[in-house]
Design brief:
mainly beta, Porin, 18-stranded antiparallel beta barrel, two-stranded antiparallel ribbon, 2 helices, disordered N terminus
Length: 432
Amino acid sequence: MKKTITSAGLLVLGAASLQAQRTAYAPAPGLSSTELAKPWSIAASVRGFYDDNYATQPSRAFGTKNPLKDDAYGFEISPSVAFNWTLPQTYLGLSYQYGYKWYDGRPGRDYDQMHQATAKLSHAFTERYKMDLSDTFVMAQEPELLAGNGVVTAPLRSNGDNIRNTANATFSADVTEHVGLVFGYTNSYYDYDQENPVGAFSPGYSALLDRMEHMGMLNLRWQVTEPTVALLGYQYGVVDFSSAEFLDPPFNTIRGSDRSSTSHYAYLGADHSFNPQLQGSLRVGAQFTDYDKFDNSNISPYVDGSINYRYNPESYALLGVRHARNPTDVAFVSNGTPTLDQETTTVYTSISHKIGGKLTASALAQVQFSEFEAGLADSESELFLLTGVNLSYEINKFLDAEVGYNYDRLDSDLPFRSYSRNRIYIGLRASY
């Protein structure tokens, strides 16, 4: 094919433009001018913050003020390092970010630690054949950081050293001048630290969410015109829950691994470049899901679309939507069947605007509406909102001052889950 267009897809927004360790859908940001100037770069940020609900607890429980909901002031340090090697046919990128947050007066452990490491390799064998490999490892506590594909499957905070690792491989081949094939495989591994039940009748996050996800993909692409590519696609997904812990104590009849499922995705799509600054992508089809342990199946819509507008070299706007099934931390059992998963519609937007020579404003928002499948929570729903704004001022080419605000809100039909959370921060970021 003469030209292909990269879909915005489900990539995770890094922390540079907004709150450190803040994630949502976003396009790949590419390399900055600092990264292009040399094969390595280093950065570090120092922030003071206030968090009015660090434990993501509801304001009230059993009709009274919830004693578990608490606020705290604190500080955060976050150094990072990145290496980028660009050759005529090959790109290799390595990065690592560490985050340390200290909370004044928080009971128990008064600090959090975050680790995020990423490796990327892209190689063009010829003009017609290309391979892309990537791997991202995260150890964290916040819900949005542990969301591997952008959809937050567990909107409540989880203490401990929780792990997510996502590996991806894609091979693209132009069969003819106008027809191409794309093969892909994604593997995601989740391991939560909370193994003991949090209450007499409640399983821990390990029982609810420990799993390995596999997704194979095959797209047939057709270059309709120079700016437009049509495609026919298929994906096969496996959600393999791994925990042998029980989901229904004290009865102990259903294990975490019993919620495993397989899915077939069939869809049509298109990528279109309206102009060099404006690109769009859309996939529309159906998802067929089987839950073998419970002899249950489901057919639901599948949609993945986005539009990305880079209206000047240092400013962009993104809008996207995705509809699909995904795992959930809810597993209430009814008549021998737990809640199996949830059907989620996610709308996301992100904007970064260079106001002047030294001032940059950024904002993001992600809204996801989910409806639970089967079990005691069948047909109940949740609305989860994540928002953030950031203002950054360039003191010099190595140092920025920044201030920002994040607001999260969960409205759930289920008891003891709904909450709101406000976070503000101010700090400095140095890079070289």
